[in-house]
Amino acid sequence: MEVYAMEKAIRPKIMPRPVLELIGYSLHAVQYGFIILTVQDGCVIRMERTEKFIFSAKNRSSYVKRNIPLEKHTLESKILHELQGLQYGQLIIRLEDGKVEQIEKTEKKRINEYQGHGDGI
Predict the structure, then answer these.
(1) Residue numbers of the domain that contains 35
(2) What pTM was computed for the model?
(3) Contact 46, 22 (CB under 8 A)
(4) SS3 of 27, please?
(5) 112, part of any domain
(6) What does the DSSP 8-state code read for residue 59?
(7) Residue 51 within a domain
(8) Phi and psi for 90 in degrees, rounded to 5?
(9) Number of independent structural domains in the chain
(10) Rounded mean pLDDT of the chain?
């Protein structure tokens, strides 16, 4: 009985510099909201940023003026690692009070990538 590979070999991708900068900036800039990265053919093709503003006495001045640090965000390498293995799908990053609360990865598979005799599909 011959065994067929179920997935194509995934080679490491190089993320374009503007995409990296935009992801890094958004991780520092968004206080409350979501960053949604859509991946197709192993490349980030779209980034959606939904930002919520919560007004209270504690944070009233922070929305007017905010300094963005020059160093990388602490979870930036983890997010890039998750993107490296994703061929089709989305990575949703939820931010609460300027901190990453949750990273959700939705992976989609293309039917034409499967090989074999249909066993187990």
Answers:
(1) 17-105
(2) 0.72
(3) no
(4) helix
(5) no
(6) T
(7) yes
(8) -140, 150
(9) 1
(10) 79
In 1-121, alpha helices (H)? 17-29, 76-84
For residues 76 and 92, which has the higher predicted lDDT (pLDDT)? 92
From its phi and psi, is residue 58 left (phi > 0), alpha (psi between -120 and 50) or beta? Answer: alpha
Q: In degrees, to the nearest 5, what angle opens at C-alpha 78 toward C-alphas 8 and 13?
A: 35
Read off the tokens for 48.
Answer: 């959606």
Look up residue 113 and give its amino acid.
E
d(CA 95, CA 102): 7
**Strands (E) located in the chain:** 32-40, 43-52, 89-96, 99-107
Amino acid in the structure at residue 83: L
**Rounded Cα gap, residues 86 and 84, in angstroms:** 6
Please enumerate in sequence order all residues whose Cβ is within 8 A of that of 45, keeping only pairs 6 or more positions apart, or say none: 38, 39
Q: How many Å apart are CA 21 and CA 24, to the nearest integer?
A: 5
Q: Tokens 């994703």 appear where? A: 86
pLDDT digits (tens, 9 = 90+) for 6-50: 444 445 567 888 998 899 899 988 889 999 999 998 899 999 999
